Protein 1
Amino acid sequence: MSAAYATFGLTPATRAGGVLADGGYQVHRDFVDFVVDGRPLLFRLADLDAVSPLASDVPPAIFTEHVRGLLGESEPPLPGGRFVIYGCPECADLACGAVTAVIERDGEDYVWRDFAWQTGEHADLELNGYHGMGPFRFRGPEYRAALDALAAGTGAPYPPRRRVLLIGPRVAVMARLAAALRTIGIGADITQDATGVTAGELRGYGAVAFGRAVSEDRRSAVLDAFERAGAAVARVDGLAPVVPLLVAQIEQALDRGAPPRRLGSLCAAGGAADVEVTSACRVRVTAYRLGLLGRAHVRDVFDGVLEPGRHRIPLDPKAVRGESFVVARTTGSVLVRPVGR
């Protein structure tokens, strides 16, 4: 079998959670992605919402079994020597669809080939194969070193646990927000005053979110408490008392890791949203508008695959009338911006 050598590595990755416009949820997942020739392998799959089996929330025994499989030390879970490379982020059920590939040893080398989309026991390469993707030949020492380090806990570490402190007087909004965050895997606590919270506990938060009714003096006091505790925390100033919008803001604030992001930038003004993407991916853009009585109006304005570069997406004037905001979301990240006038 002939194939040019490709480099192999691992990198922390996320599948951004969120509260969707239709009221549904998508769970936040931290996982390890495969890096082939310096680029995350998932980035080659433009319209895929999936995670690798090397996720932070799977039991240790299952995690170890996946690593052993990638090393060729255990039997393939699917016929034809096939392994799951990416699966459903919600349930990991093969029936939802998965990217699979044959992984085999060739002397000291490891070869990944015959990538396919699979929803049953057997893969149909003619119908569902990823033609033009692979085969990838990896040098054995480099490949084994990366996976051995991961199994030993010294390689591609996951981001720290995502946890946010919510500050605000509107108890009902804060309670709904905390419940939504916990549903998607983000820890959330509510308080009116952080001055009594211990330094060790404050250092466990990645962000602090303020409701719009919180005074600037109160915000400064809370931030001073974090500073005295030596806690580097992201500040979130809530744009509006709309739970899905606040969840997106907090997701954006917590996304401070090093992995490359598919969403480069977002701005909205003049009846359009400008979205920059760094690699082909599916992007959803949602508009939120506050009515005269404070009622939230939600409109999905775009859902499709965008190629790398900057794209202008028209916004219906009715969807962004008055005080309004846009949220752009893709597999690994989310961006939130107010709509400028």
Protein 2
Amino acid sequence: MSKSLDVYSDLVAEGEEIDALLDHLTDEQWQLPTPAPGWTVAHQVAHLAFVCHLAATSARDPQRFAEYATQAKNGFQAAVDAALAQFLAAGPQAARARWREELAASVAGLSEADQKDTVPWLVNPLPPTVLAAAGLMEVFAHGQDIADALGVRREYTDRVGHLAWFGVHTRDFGYQAHGMEPPREEFRFELTAPSGGTTWTFGPEDAEDRVTGPAADFALLVSRRRHHADLAIRTEGARAKEWLGIAQAYRGPGGAGRKPGQFTS
């Protein structure tokens, strides 16, 4: 990935782009269903507030984060549902304000942390930049759900370079989610930036299995916001072809994902 990409400033920019979609929404628009079953636009924003709160707490209050981690082990979904209920109770505008506050706090906390050290996270400690990339994936993915609910076609930027890196390095999550043994062999990834001037490459050049295509489509693939049949991602090799159907850049169940032809963009 190009070293000119700054994950912290890009996380801020991605958040601002999604936040701008929320300007002037009516009460009815806040309650529009998104592609995530049972979640409205307001639910998506409340979820982002919760995730950013976790990241900010990880960077600034490890002891408090340890309490969250314990709760997660005893039932993560219950903890998520409780947080959503809390953030939604005050209304969608309050959830939006909380998200903006927590996003700023998480970026500040992670960028101020020792960049050579790690911060605690739910499964394993992570370098601050990696947790920021995970946060960018969250904003990208849930922002896509919001855009889809509002009928907005997004213009993707080279910020997806972070998601290309993150999706490559979480390749095995899809196998784990399906109870499959990840292959030992590395894949070759060649992903083109939206600007067209850069191709991000990962893995050995002579790998038998290859994944190529637009980096934005790759981000949509590993965030499971589009079905692979609707993306310009191409594979070579049986293992890469199999991975295409299970790809995800987050731990746990992959969910229903999206159906072929569900979206035209």
Protein 3
Amino acid sequence: MARRCGLCVALDAPDLATAEAWAAAAAPSAGLLKVGLELFSAEGGEAVRRIARHRPVFLDVKLHDIPNTVAGAVRALAPLGPAWITIHAAGGAAMVAAARDAAEKAGGAARPRILAVTVLTSLDAAALAETGVAGGPVQQVLRLARLAVGAGADGLVCSPREVAPIRDALGEGPALVVPGVRPAGSAADDQARTATPEEMAAAGADWVVVGRPITRAADPAAAARAIAGALAA
């Protein structure tokens, strides 16, 4: 299944100056820029505001708490203007619904979209089993994907290996954002379930999230251009 797939560059930097340099280099080739926990913890809302000058922001804070607390966090984050906010689908249907409701009330038509994280891409079957989850990553991802979309999530974060099963199960509706994407020949780093950009574009992903293969490259702008070109091929 071929569909238009965009590049989101993960700005996993310890400070805003580094992140802005990466953002400026990658922005011509990227549709989204990710502000994750490291950068947000170091720089707070200013990181979102300043990175948003380059491209819309995917705010990857993976909220996971009781529904009232997550709703309050979404209300607090929405005025920063992120295009997407992540929550953990494992927080349950009531938490997902509370996040969606808070986003709608806080942002109106321009509200942030809610992305539900299914199973972290660093986890494989053995790691899930250690936490008491039986059946492996695909089964758990599908369980959480159905729960989250049914509760109002706009999209899902999943590993490359679950894109096709989610599309088969849930169709074209939810946006699928896929970390753990690596160009052919790149190191997997701490990702347990990876694929190439071309594979994800063909499988039905809407966005691929790429960090270190771009930000650690000798020429981040050229690395971003190459991956964007592979997605468009």
Protein 4
Amino acid sequence: MSRFTFTIAATDGKARTGSIAMERGTIRTPAFMPVGTAATVKAMKPESVRATGADIILANTYHLMLRPGAERVARLGGLHRFMKWDRPILTDSGGYQVMSLSELSKVTDDGVTFKSHLDGSRHWLTPERSIEVQRLLDSDIIMQFDELVRPDVSPEKQREAMDRSIAWAKRSRDEFDRGGEHAARAAIFGIQQGVLDEKLRKQSADALIDIGFDGYAVGGLAVGEGQEAMLGCLDFAPDQLPVDKPRYLMGVGKPDDLVEAVRRGIDMFDCVLPTRSGRTGQAFTLDGPINIRNARFAEDEAPLDPDCACPTCTTHSRAYVHHLVRSGEILGAMLMTEHNLGFYQSLMANMRDSIAAGRFEAFATDFLDRYRRKGA
């Protein structure tokens, strides 16, 4: 079997469904990757994450290189063995953390110097070191090291970050190819930058295609631009990337974001929202999100979402989960997270089925109308 094979089984408009075949398993697309930042999807056991329908998870290069350390994970047999997840793992490159912790970092063409948010220790992260860390973790899908900037920076800064990301893409690709046995069974994705500028996005995409990657990500979105601006960018950005490669929208998003992005040709997603929301009392339902902490749920015997078949919804009432969350019980976070991840995976499965059946647009319209009609 080829180390990385992307197959498109059906299309409906720009929406696509298919699969990515890798050594550690097949990833059904469109795919949502639960975020396991520090080698754990918070409030979930690995087998519970798999039971929701997840084929792949995401782990974070920046956080794992600081704690427990990539070399330590390698000595312990790699990330899959360390966390007992035997299916594919995608690792992000650390670029987002460089931006979000910008007050602790300094960017040059060579790389990034930053202070650890944990203890203030100084570290040096380059494209080569980012790829090395991901290789030590034994990641299945490696992301190039990139620089992203927020949409409110100057046009000069936007172009500078895009140009730097292109240069780092080539260095990331070269370092990945030096990976020997790991490179033979893993994959590397390039990351398109350019903020909301169509011309910059096109220049970035063309340069990445010239370098050549196994898949391509649309980066630099979901950083404060708002849904309307994000979707405006997605009206053109995916079309600038190869049709026969996976397209990954990084860090997105809300359920309606996912539907809108699939409508525009995106195949892969990750976001902390379903797990973070679960820990703070927000549950996603077909009728929009609800805040289970609200007093009106104190004696509500209905499930979180009457249309959901997850273990939380088939076993427990809103009243019970309301009690757990209001009481600060750990089980409340666990049940809410289990439901939210199940909801997201069910949404992805329904999108895959509707694309295969040639009725995606009808599904998307019905879902969005209902989801956006009300919420609490």
